[in-house]
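[Q] Does anyone have a clean C-alpha cell version of this?
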Amino acid sequence: MDLAFELQKIYDSEINLEIGWFWDCGIKIRLGDPMNGYLAEETVHSAFEIVPWLQEAIAHFYPESQYAEALGEEIRERASRRLFCPPLIGAQVFCPDCGAPNPSPDFEEVIFFVCSRCGKSVEVQPPKVQ
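[A] Here you go.
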C-alpha cells in the first residue's frame, strides 16, 4: 500500500489529519485539525499501520465522504464496530443528535459547538454543581 497515494486521496477528499512523531515514541496520528478539533488519535509503532488506521477512522467518522465510499465493504464494516481513542487534549463533548465526539483542543470548557459529523449547532449546558 502506497502511503503517498492514500494521503493524496484523503487530501483530495478534504479530510484533515495530522501525522507526527518524536523518535522512539511511536507515530501519532490524529483525525481532525487544531482549528476544528480532533475526532480521534492513535499512536502506532510503524509507518505500515498509518493507512489502515486512517481508513477505518475516516470510514467511521466520515462514512459519506468520497474517500470512505471508495473503501471496501470489509473496511467500512470493521470501522463501524471499532472503538477509537478520543484525543488526549482539551475538552470533549458529544453531539446529542448523532453521538459523534467533538473535541475542543484549546478549551477546558465548551459552551457551544457545531457538530463535525452532522453539522448541527449545539449549546452545551454547564454541569450542575452538587
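[Q] Thanks! Anything notable?
[A] The chain has a mean pLDDT of 88.
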